């Protein structure tokens, strides 16, 4: 997620320069074919192309709104996970007790440690199987910057460091690591209830917290495992390219009509017609960026530069829970990399 106020121009150019070169070449070829080789049949009226442009812009607006809704839902879910984690930490410290009996501090530490492991396991699972192409530098759209270490949830060590060897073997033998970490939390609460450290009311209240965490995990998995409708995404890209390809053909007709109206010489007419190239480039680039913006927010957990910063949010949860326990080995918050928080 970008945390700077604006996106640096060089980030946009890294994604856009092949497109800009391609559109410039195509516009130049259209001018050459029309003016030098006099293939006048290539030009088309501008009114139909304008109509297509209006339709494409409305379609891209719908696509962008739909993609942003997925991104915003993902951010809301992780906001709820942060709130639920704080509630869990507070409850572990204050609801587990028995009159006249002292609870081993390791029990509370174990419950909080396993919860932190669950958060990191969930982030690791959400970052797995990305459809985005890895890049060695920051791009504005469609790429992800990968750090092969646990901090960015690219390796299982992101959650393994918090679990015992027995727990690692048990949960990794299952199909969903995060699910079974929450199940183990429920098992531990049952044991504490049997030992008298939780009455029925407090036991139900803490199980309800686990249910809410299951709900948040399920919402994340729904977003991750349900791809953005490809008919919406692919047709948006297709319509955009149809408009971009037709645009210089329509501009040739429009600029030629203007030169005829002004009775320009042949040389002046060619110079004037060359002006259509930068205008074609500008308009095409605007539509290209509109399409890329929607594409970059389709899948908010892939680790792209515009995605929800789940690694930073997971670190925030870890810091706050460790501080609740009074632990001395609290990690530092995640810092942006080149203006991007992951």
Automatic annotation (TrEMBL):
Q: What are the subcellular locations of this protein?
A: Cell membrane
Origin: domain of life = Bacteria
Keywords from the UniProt entry: Cell membrane, Ion transport, Membrane, Transmembrane, Transmembrane helix, Transport
Q: Name one Pfam family in it.
A: Bestrophin_2
User: What is the topology of this protein in the membrane according to its UniProt annotation?
Assistant: Multi-pass membrane protein
Q: What cellular component GO annotations does this protein have?
A: plasma membrane
Q: Which InterPro entries does the record cross-reference, listed alphabetically?
A: YneE/VCCN1/2-like
Gene Ontology terms for molecular function = chloride channel activity
Q: Which residues cross the membrane?
A: 12-33, 39-62, 232-252, 272-290
Protein family per UniProt? Belongs to the anion channel-forming bestrophin (TC 1.A.46) family.
Q: What is this protein called?
A: Putative membrane protein
The opening ranks of the lineage are:
Bacteria, Pseudomonadati, Pseudomonadota, Alphaproteobacteria, Hyphomicrobiales
């Amino acid at each position: 997620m970008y945390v700077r106020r604006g996106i640096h121009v060089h980030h946009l150019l890294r994604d856009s320069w092949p497109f800009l070169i391609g559109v410039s070449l195509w516009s130049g070829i259209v001018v050459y074919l029309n003016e030098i080789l006099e293939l006048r049949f290539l030009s088309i009226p501008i009114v139909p192309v304008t109509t297509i442009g209006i339709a494409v812009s409305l379609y891209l607006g719908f696509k962008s709104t739909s993609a942003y809704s997925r991104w915003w839902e993902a951010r809301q879910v992780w906001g709820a996970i942060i709130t639920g984690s704080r509630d869990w930490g507070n409850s572990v410290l204050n609801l587990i007790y028995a009159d006249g009996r002292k609870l081993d501090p390791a029990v509370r530490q174990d419950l909080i440690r396993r919860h932190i492991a669950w958060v990191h396991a969930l982030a690791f699972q959400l970052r797995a199987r990305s459809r985005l192409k890895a890049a060695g530098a920051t791009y504005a759209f469609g790429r992800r910057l990968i750090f092969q270490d646990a901090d960015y949830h690219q390796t299982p060590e992101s959650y393994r460091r918090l679990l015992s060897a027995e727990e690692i073997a048990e949960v990794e033998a299952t199909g969903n690591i995060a699910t079974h970490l929450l199940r183990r939390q429920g098992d531990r609460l049952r044991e504490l209830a049997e030992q008298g450290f939780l009455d029925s009311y407090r036991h139900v209240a803490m199980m309800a917290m686990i249910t809410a965490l299951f709900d948040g995990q399920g919402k994340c998995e729904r977003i991750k495992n349900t791809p953005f409708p490809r008919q919406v995404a692919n047709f948006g890209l297709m319509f955009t390219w149809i408009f971009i390809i037709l645009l210089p053909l329509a501009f040739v007709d429009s600029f030629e009509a203007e030169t005829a109206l002004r009775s320009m010489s042949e040389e002046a007419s060619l110079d004037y017609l060359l002006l259509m190239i930068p205008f074609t480039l500008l308009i095409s680039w605007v539509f290209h960026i509109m399409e890329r913006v929607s594409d970059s927010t389709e899948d908010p957990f892939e680790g792209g530069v515009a995605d929800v910063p789940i690694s930073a949010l997971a670190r925030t949860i870890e810091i706050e829970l460790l501080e609740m326990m009074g632990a001395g080995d609290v990690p530092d918050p995640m810092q942006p990399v080149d203006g991007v928080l992951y």
